[in-house]
Automatic annotation (TrEMBL):
Protein name: (2Fe-2S)-binding protein
Presence of the UniProt keyword Transcription regulation in the record: no
Keywords: Oxidoreductase
Taxonomic placement: Bacteria, Pseudomonadati, Pseudomonadota, Betaproteobacteria, Burkholderiales
GO MF, one annotated term: iron-sulfur cluster binding
Domain of life, per lineage: Bacteria
Stored Pfam families: Fer2_4
Length: 104
């Protein structure tokens, strides 16, 4: 796991005094603190924060963390091209990344 992913996982690890939200990331239930972004849930679910693939098939992931680069796009509840760094997790949310697409 790279340093960025490790920092994200550490930042979103639930603590006993926080309420957790359960979301599905690529078919796996993930518990994250209330107020966590979808990209944080992805980091918690996967060793690598892969959100999509480039036109040439190369893995891509979040870069800017503020929605400008759009490298964090995922499918959320069936809606494609959602910015995972700008979207807060909601209970029962279904998130699909490029990793999920590769499993089909």
């Amino acid at each position: 796991m790279n340093a960025v992913a490790e920092a994200l996982v550490e930042a979103i690890t639930p603590q006993t005094n926080l309420n957790a939200v359960i979301v599905m990331v690529d078919g796996h239930a993930v518990a994250v603190p209330v107020g966590s972004t979808v990209v944080a849930a992805i980091a918690h679910a996967h060793a690598t924060v892969l959100t999509r693939k480039s036109v040439s098939g190369m893995p891509r992931g979040p870069v800017c963390g503020m929605g400008i680069c759009q490298e964090c796009r995922v499918t959320i509840d069936g809606r494609a091209h959602q910015l995972s760094c700008q979207t807060l997790c909601e209970p029962g949310m279904d998130v699909r990344t490029a990793a999920w697409e590769g499993q089909k």
